[in-house]
Amino acid sequence: MRNDSDFVIGIVAIIIPELQSKFIDLRRNTHRTMKQNPVKRALAQGEPQVGSWLAFGNIHTSRLMARVGFPWLTVDMEHSPIDWSTAAEMFGAIADAGCIPLARVPKGDHTHIKRVLDAGAMGIVVPMVNTVEEAKIAIAAAKYPPEGNRSVGGGLHVLNFDASPSDYYQNANDEILVVLQTESPEGVENAEEIYSLPGVDAIFIGPNDLRFQMRTPDGTFPTAEEHEAMMQRVLEMGNKTGTPVGLHVMSVDDIKKRLDEGWKFLALGSEMKAMVECAENWVQELDLKSSDEAMINY
After folding, report:
1. Rounded to the nearest 10 degrees, how much is the dihedral formed by the CA atoms of 70, 76, 82, 84?
2. Domain for residue 256, yes or no?
3. What is the average pLDDT across 160-169?
4. For the domain that residue 245 is a member of, what is the CATH number?
5. Of 31, 60, 79, 112, which is the active-site residue?
6. Which domain holds residue 48?
7. Segments in the chain forming alpha helices (H)
8. Long-range contacts formed by 72-76: CB under 8 A, 24+ apart
9. What is the percent of the chain with per-residue pLDDT over 90, rounded to a whole number?
């Protein structure tokens, strides 16, 4: 007579191959649809998109910020100590929450752009694009051939787009958001040519850098009126070329003002500013300390 263990082994021998067969068939018949980039599509249709900036490099903060309702968040790798591994974790946390993770790269070259996209960013923000050639280099680095020269590799990008590798490589060029920054008078002078290039999805002004780049040889800063006039030239050129343009602002009132003016791609502060500003307000309401100057400017 067979003992209990022999009986169990016999049942398992029958069931497991059957389950494996069904699982394999299920996988073969499953069609996975790659996520689209709603921010890129909204901008292409002229719809404003308001997001924010991440500078801490903290995964928990990123998860929380990705769930408050912003359609996109930019991980700032230009002016923060965020490293590649941390950035990849942040991109994943943001994407898992249904928010679009962007990366501001330190430099608009092939190496930096390739690495953030392979790590799972769904778009790039490229600083200090002053010439047509610099713009072309950045755009090409974000596109697979034949549109660009992005090399094939990595595995995290497919996770954030919920795609198979073949689907990602086939469709990534249509989903990666390419944002170029105009941050100097030279960039403004070359704006029409830059903004007219195929592959430019949006333009973004860094107001602080633009102001510093406008200083005269003796270090004199532009007046507020001169600075604003330069930014308005960017908006006018965006309207002329049909390119969405935006900038970084520090208050909800400024967001509303800029939306009324026609700006489309706007960043409101950062998680750092939100935390420090809230804490400073608490301290002032309690009369613990008076602060003459804001600690955080973005």
Report:
1. 90
2. yes
3. 95
4. 3.20.20.60
5. 79
6. 31-285
7. 4-29, 38-44, 59-65, 84-96, 110-118, 132-141, 156-160, 165-175, 185-189, 191-195, 207-213, 224-241, 252-261, 271-285
8. 72/39, 72/99, 72/100, 72/101, 72/102, 72/123, 73/99, 73/100, 73/101, 73/102, 74/102, 74/103, 74/104, 74/125, 74/267, 75/101, 75/102, 75/103, 75/104, 75/121, 76/104, 76/270
9. 83
Q: What is the mean pLDDT of the chain?
A: 90
- pLDDT for 210-266, tens place per residue? 999 999 999 999 999 999 999 999 999 999 999 999 999 999 999 999 999 999 999
The helix (H) or strand (E) run that includes residue 72 is: strand 72-76
Return the top range by mean pLDDT from 33-37, 85-89, 274-278.
Answer: 85-89
The residues with which 51 forms a beta bridge, in sequence order, are 267
Q: Give CA–CA dist 295/289, Å, rounded.
A: 13
Q: Is residue 3 part of a domain?
A: no
Question: 66 with 94: CB under 8 angstroms?
Answer: yes
Token couple for 35: 């996520």
CB 39 within 8 A of CB 59: no
- The average pLDDT across 82-90 equals 97
In a domain, 5, yes or no: no
Catalytic site includes residue 227: no
Considering only the C-alpha atoms of the chain, give the largest distance between any 2 of them, rounded to a whole number of Å.
101
The predicted model gives 265-294 an average pLDDT of 87
What pLDDT shows up at residue 289? 72
Here the tokens at position 160 are 């954030």
- 298: in domain: no
Q: How far apart are CA 178 and CA 195, in angstroms?
A: 11
How many domains does the chain contain in total? 1
